[in-house]
Amino acid sequence: MKYFLNPIEYKSIKDMPARERPREKLQYGGESSLSDIELMCILLGRGTRLRPVQDIAHDVLDCLARQKCADFKSLCEIEGVGPAQATTIVSAMELGRRLGSSVRKRVSQPSDIFDLLRHYGDREQEHFIAVMLNGAMEVIRVKVITVGLVNKTLVHAREVFSECIRVMGTAVILAHNHPSGNLEPSNDDIDLTVRLRKAGDILGIEVLDHFIFSSEKYYSMREAGEFWV
Predict the structure, then answer these.
(1) Are 225 and 188 in contact (CB under 8 A)?
(2) Is residue 56 helix, strand or coil?
(3) In this structure, which of 17, 37, 39, 109 has its CB flanked by the most CB atoms within 10 Å?
């Protein structure tokens, strides 16, 4: 499944042409034509007198990306999210987890990772993500490690590898989005990659790649022949 991100530019969904509204867009173009924010707008249903639904959807996605806020109580703390909306979001997440756990995506090339993570490409902040794999190169866990500036100070090896150890992963692919659209790896990206590869070697968990992406394209350090030892 591929994601095509089309941000909502209108203050109110009612102001949008009918075919560009999230529900109608899904009906005519299919669910893959919607961005994360548009999908969340459908789950939320409506905004409030003070906040348009798009703004609320943005806050909910940021909360869910951190994974520490993906519970009913924390969702209700977001301005504009009521108990009914929080219940809908939590139920949708749990159903997706149950259905998704029965089919594991197999990774064989960088484009497979792009399809998996592309929906993070339109985020305004950098999201550093660890994609954990089993011995059959199947994805067993995708975890957002940090939200914000990605550098070697903020991204700790224990946060990258502890979950991989817990789920019995044998390899990990590092990834983060560049909101600027410039996918060239920075010095911090290079230093972080070297440090995490060394940590992975000690733990017996291979770091296969460091993947930098936007909503439209990606840069694979391994594919580019620049995967430093």
Answers:
(1) no
(2) helix
(3) 37
| Exposure letters 7-46 (e unless 16+ CB within 10 A, then b) | ebeeeebeebeeebbbeebbeeeeeebbbbbbbbbbbbee
Entry pTM: 0.60
pLDDT tens track for 116-169: 888 888 788 889 999 999 988 999 888 888 887 665 547 889 989 998 998 899
Amino acid residing at 121: G
The boundaries of every CATH 3.40.140.10 domain in the chain are 110-220
Specify the fold of 110-220.
Cytidine Deaminase; domain 2 (3.40.140)
Query: What is the Cα–Cα distance from 55 to 12, expressed in whole angstroms?
Result: 10
CA-CA distance, 90 to 141, in Å (whole number)? 19
Distance separating alpha carbons of residues 183 and 179, to the nearest angstrom: 9
Q: Using CA atoms, how far apart are residues 24 and 28, in angstroms rounded to an integer?
A: 6
Residue 125 CA to residue 62 CA, distance in Å, equals 9
Q: In what order do the strands lie in the sheet with 206-213?
A: 139-147, 127-133, 171-177, 206-213, 218-220
